[in-house]
């Protein structure tokens, strides 16, 4: 789902698993010893450490290559508040709580934590949307409605496949069978991107039909259809830090930040974790590495992971969301509208969905707007210079608002997730 928080897979071998810390391992040949090595301080790593602590297992180390807790729940400073002159905090990664909970039903545990730590957030109103093409504003919201109607048929068809244990197919085939055939209609392509790609970071051709629908249902039907955008100026990872503080003290020596795992050697006798700074010997390890780390062999396993596990890892794909932030000296778009959908005349998914942060309930008066790219377009812009990306986005904005003077941004930024493992 769209940059919502999720836990990485835990690999249940007796040997790996994820540490992070504030103290560096001594640079000598002696290994630091512990009962459990927890490899990674993202949501999964911190949750694993918390579970051990709750079970009165306190002899563990958390090893994390970054200098913060949170993994891909990560933020940065951007722009300047016109009133306070302080920088804003914007999220590079996870940004939403998706599916909050229903009355009398289950509550999304991330929403429970967001409330516990008082994260500032605002409902993402997906009905607050204006539509554009290369000629400026064009109302094609009826196309969004047509997609929703076809999607209702798609959901029923997925149920037939599940109940009948039938052969799965692609989301593209499912949509086509339901009568949704965008072909070269770029407005339909934009509507489809808004409804599908933005949620999954994959095209319908790349998405499985049955479990594409199932994944959506498990979030939005199990909990609720609400999406809340987190704009808390402490950063979204405030809840991860808060949970870590329930079992870690200030400057806890069990948390090893800025410590990169290079290899793991494991056997029935235990596991040895080698880092750039030394080594750790543990009885057990919990590895919460991302799929990208595992697929790119960033960490060496000795012996290698079994074939069945390597094959399972290689079946996954990392979805890449690239959020491109612009701050201007004025708000030239409608400040009361949250989303602006653009249908490029040639390229599907080309700077398609812009989101305003300057309006009510967000970073009011910030003059900040950002656009999200996924898949091949995300990879493309992450490999080109900032200036080229900035100019491409500006050209789109100037097409969308031909009657406005769209100036150069005061500041501009985007992360490059595909360069990280």
Shape: globular
Tell how many strands the DSSP assignment holds. 20
Helix/strand-derived class? alpha/beta
- What Rg, in angstroms, do the CA atoms define? 23 Å
**Total count of helical runs of at least 4 residues:** 11
CATH A-level architecture of the domain at 16-72 and 237-315: 3-Layer(bba) Sandwich
- Average per-residue pLDDT, rounded, comes to 92
CATH superfamily of the domain at 16-72 and 237-315: FAD/NAD(P)-binding domain
Largest sheet: 8 strands, mixed
CATH class of the domain at 16-72 and 237-315: Alpha Beta
The helical percent reads: 25-40%
Question: In terms of quaternary structure, what is this?
Answer: single chain
Uncertain segments of ≥5 residues (pLDDT<50)? 6-28
Under CATH, the topology of the domain at 16-72 and 237-315 is which?
FAD/NAD(P)-binding domain
Q: Beta fraction of the residues?
A: 15-25%
Span between termini: 20 Å
Domain Amine oxidase: 43-418
Protein name: Amine oxidase domain-containing protein
Signal peptide: 1-22
Keywords: Signal
Q: What would you note in describing this structure?
A:
This protein is an alpha/beta fold. 29% of the residues lie in helices and 22% in strands. It has eleven helices and 20 strands. It has helices at residues 43-54, 109-116, 141-164, 171-177, 186-200, 209-220, 238-244, 291-295, 307-315, 375-382, 386-400; strands at 16-17, 31-39, 60-63, 75-78, 88-91, 96-98, 121-123, 129-133, 136-137, 227-230, 255-256, 261-267, 270-275, 279-287, 300-302, 321-327, 339-343, 353-356, 368-374, 411-413. Helix 3 packs across helix 5 (186-200) and helix 3 (141-164) packs across helix 6. It is globular. This is Amine oxidase domain-containing protein.
């Amino acid at each position: 789902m769209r940059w919502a928080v999720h836990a990485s897979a835990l690999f249940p071998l007796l040997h790996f698993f994820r540490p992070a810390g504030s103290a560096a391992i001594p640079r000598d040949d002696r290994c630091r010893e512990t009962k459990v090595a927890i490899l990674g301080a993202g949501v999964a790593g911190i949750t694993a450490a918390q579970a051990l602590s709750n079970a009165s297992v306190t002899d563990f180390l958390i090893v994390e290559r970054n200098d913060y807790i949170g993994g891909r729940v990560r933020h940065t400073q951007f722009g300047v508040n016109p009133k306070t002159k302080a920088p804003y905090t914007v999220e590079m990664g996870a940004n939403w709580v998706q599916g909050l909970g229903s009355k009398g039903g289950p509550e999304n545990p991330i929403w429970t934590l967001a409330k516990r730590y008082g994260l500032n957030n605002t409902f993402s109103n997906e009905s607050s949307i204006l539509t554009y093409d290369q000629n400026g504003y064009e109302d094609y919201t009826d196309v969004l409605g047509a997609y929703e109607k076809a999607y209702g048929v798609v959901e029923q068809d997925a149920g037939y496949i599940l109940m009948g244990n039938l052969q799965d197919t692609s989301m593209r085939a499912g949509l086509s069978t339901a009568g949704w055939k965008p072909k070269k209609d770029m407005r339909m392509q934009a509507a489809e991107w808004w409804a599908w790609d933005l949620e999954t970071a994959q095209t319908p051709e790349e998405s499985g039909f049955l479990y594409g629908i199932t994944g959506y249902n498990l979030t939005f039907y199990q909990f609720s259809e609400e999406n809340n955008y987190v704009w808390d100026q402490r950063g979204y990872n405030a809840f991860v830090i808060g949970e870590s503080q329930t079992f870690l003290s200030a400057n806890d020596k069990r948390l090893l930040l800025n410590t990169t795992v290079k290899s793991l050697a494991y056997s029935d006798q235990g596991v040895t974790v080698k880092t750039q700074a030394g080594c750790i010997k543990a009885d057990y390890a919990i590895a919460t590495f991302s799929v990208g780390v595992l697929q790119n062999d960033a960490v060496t396993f000795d012996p290698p992971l079994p074939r069945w596990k390597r094959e399972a890892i290689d079946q996954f794909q990392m979805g890449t969301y690239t959020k491109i932030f612009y701050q201007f000296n004025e708000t030239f778009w409608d400040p009361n509208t949250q989303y602006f959908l653009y249908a490029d005349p040639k390229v599907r998914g080309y700077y398609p969905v812009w989101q305003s942060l300057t309006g009510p309930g967000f970073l009011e008066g910030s003059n900040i707007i950002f656009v999200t790219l996924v898949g091949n377009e995300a990879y493309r812009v992450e490999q080109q210079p900032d200036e080229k990306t900035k100019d491409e986005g500006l050209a789109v904005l100037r097409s969308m608002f031909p009657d406005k003077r769209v100036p150069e941004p005061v500041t501009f930024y985007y992360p490059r997730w595909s360069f990280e493992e």
